[in-house]
């Protein structure tokens, strides 16, 4: 299992991390980028910042499916 950590959001100081197997690191990087974009969008949409200091995600893959879980 590998760990990807994005730069904290400068505006909100939220740490976004993704746990992913080594062969899915590229998908994990994309997931971290999307998470940062989504947090920014919802902050603007609702006018409220994300309330927690971090957002963790876990990516797994089985022979038939791939999943991304928020932890």
UniProtKB/TrEMBL annotation:
SUPFAM superfamilies: Metalloproteases ('zincins'), catalytic domain (SSF55486). GO terms for biological process: peptide catabolic process; proteolysis. Keywords: Aminopeptidase, Hydrolase, Protease. GO terms for molecular function: metalloaminopeptidase activity; peptide binding; zinc ion binding. One of its GO terms (cellular component) is cytoplasm. This is Putative aminopeptidase 2.
């Amino acid at each position: 299992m590998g760990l990807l950590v994005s730069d904290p959001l400068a505006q909100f100081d939220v740490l976004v991390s993704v746990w992913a197997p080594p062969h899915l690191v590229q998908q994990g990087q994309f997931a971290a980028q999307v998470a940062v974009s989504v947090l920014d969008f919802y902050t603007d949409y609702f006018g409220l910042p994300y309330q927690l200091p971090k957002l963790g995600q876990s990516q797994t893959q089985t022979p038939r499916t791939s999943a991304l879980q928020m932890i």
